[in-house]
Amino acid sequence: MSHESASEDDGFAGFAVAAWPRLVRTAQLLTGDFHEAEDLVQTTLAKVYGRWRRVPRDEIDVYVRRALINNNLSRLRRKRVVHLLTPVLPDSVRHAYAGHAEAVEQRTALLEALADLTARQRAVMVLRYWEDLSEQEIASVLNCSIGTVKTHARRGLAALRAHPRLGTAPVPHPHAPTGVRP
């Protein structure tokens, strides 16, 4: 292995280690399941590694987010086909979160509400409100227009506000302490 190749590999390894927690958190919001999120991030990073040399260094975050979103959309398509071929749909497995019962209930309700959104609306909600990306950055990640991002955001927020599990309570921000409004 040449010195140049080793340094590029080291650059990827450093990026992957630093980005792992953030990517898993984003993927968990996209998938609704911690284990699927880890699998999604691992698959995404494996694909990114294969193209690591060709990714412009100033676009790494956008490239990885786009890959994560696209891999999630592909996962949903594959899952949809499996569900169509399965005679009985399996019960969904809930991931138990440690902590106060009310915070767990709020988070569960939020994940259920996010799961009811379309994949694109969910991606916009996660990128906007958890990743704190601008509309321009989201448009770049999703490879769509700013108007499309605004439409998905508006419809996603309306769906979250109307969701029966969320009711009229404010949608909790994932980083806010329990009981604090965003």
Number of helices, counting only DSSP H or I runs of 4 residues or more: 7
**Element-by-element helix/strand order:** HHHHHHH
Major sheet attributes? none
Oligomer: single chain
Q: Name the average pLDDT.
A: 78
Percent helix range: 55-70%
Basic shape: globular
Beta-strand percent range: under 5%
Termini distance?
A: 50 Å
Return residue spans where pLDDT drops below 50 for at least 5 consecutive residues. Answer: 81-86, 89-99, 175-182
> SS-based structural class?
mainly alpha
Q: Over all CA atoms, what is the radius of gyration?
A: 18 Å
Count of individual beta strands: 0
Describe this structure in words.
With 182 residues, this protein is an all-alpha fold. Helix content is 69%, strand content 0%. It is built from 7 helices and no strands. The chain has helices at 3-31, 34-51, 60-85, 101-115, 119-130, 135-142, 146-162. It is globular, with a radius of gyration of 18 Å.
Secondary-structure topology with pairs:
Blueprint: H1 3-31, H2 34-51, H3 60-85, H4 101-115, H5 119-130, H6 135-142, H7 146-162
Can you summarize this structure?
By secondary structure, the protein is an all-alpha fold.
Observed structural traits:
182 residues, mainly alpha, 69% helix, 0% strand, globular, disordered C terminus
